[in-house]
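Input structure tokens:
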């Protein structure tokens, strides 16, 4: 069956993300992508123009997926500890199930973060950061969390999650539940007050996150 223009664009994005994730941006070329897909380099140029625009498209689609997921996850989850656990689970599910785009985003975003071309991506990153920060702030205000510096804790969470691609391979030794359980146990032990829940049901939260991701992908 011949490719439609939309399927061709999607195939280009997917193949480009896989190459950047495995080899890096500098080592990825239009020639390589065209050969793998059996299309001409001109088709890629027609759809995206430059390699920088192709990277921007991968990043923009990646952040759009994460934001749509996060909004539904937070709408369906109550309590600061559970909501924070759910966002951490979401980022790790992306590491497992959307790995090429996740690794491409993590390893290249700092390099291009100041480019004018990336303005929309920066805006979406800020919107996602605001969601995480908001969960922490709500926890502090409700008394569920201690009066911590929410900006620093937000950075801590992103540091844990965004760089897990460097050790959590495509066939991870640990499941998402394993990692979320370990991380949230230590994180929440430092955040929780006596008014907060002593434990969250990590397995159920991960399952709920997976259900949202599957629904949005279908």
């Amino acid at each position: 069956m011949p490719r439609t223009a939309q399927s061709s664009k999607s195939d280009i994005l997917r193949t480009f993300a896989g190459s950047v994730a495995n080899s890096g941006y500098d080592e990825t070329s239009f020639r390589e992508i065209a050969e793998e897909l059996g299309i001409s380099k001109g088709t890629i140029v027609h759809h995206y123009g430059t390699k920088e625009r192709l990277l921007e498209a991968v990043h923009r689609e990646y952040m759009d997926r994460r934001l749509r997921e996060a909004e539904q996850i937070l709408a369906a989850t109550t309590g600061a500890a559970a909501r924070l656990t759910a966002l951490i689970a979401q980022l790790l599910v992306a590491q497992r199930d959307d790995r090429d785009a996740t690794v491409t985003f993590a390893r290249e975003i700092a390099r291009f973060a100041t480019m004018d071309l990336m303005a929309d991506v920066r805006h979406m990153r800020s919107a996602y950061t605001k969601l995480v920060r908001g969960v922490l702030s709500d926890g502090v205000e409700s008394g569920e969390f201690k009066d911590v510096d929410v900006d620093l804790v937000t950075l801590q969470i992103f540091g844990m999650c965004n760089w897990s691609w460097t050790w959590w391979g495509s066939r991870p030794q640990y499941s998402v539940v394993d990692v979320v359980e370990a991380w949230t146990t230590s994180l929440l032990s430092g955040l929780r007050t006596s008014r907060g829940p002593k434990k969250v049901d990590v397995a159920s939260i991960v399952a709920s996150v997976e259900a949202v991701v599957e629904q949005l992908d279908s």
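Residues 1-49 form a domain with the Arc Repressor Mutant, subunit A fold (CATH 1.10.10). Residues 20 and 191 are 37 Å apart (CA to CA).
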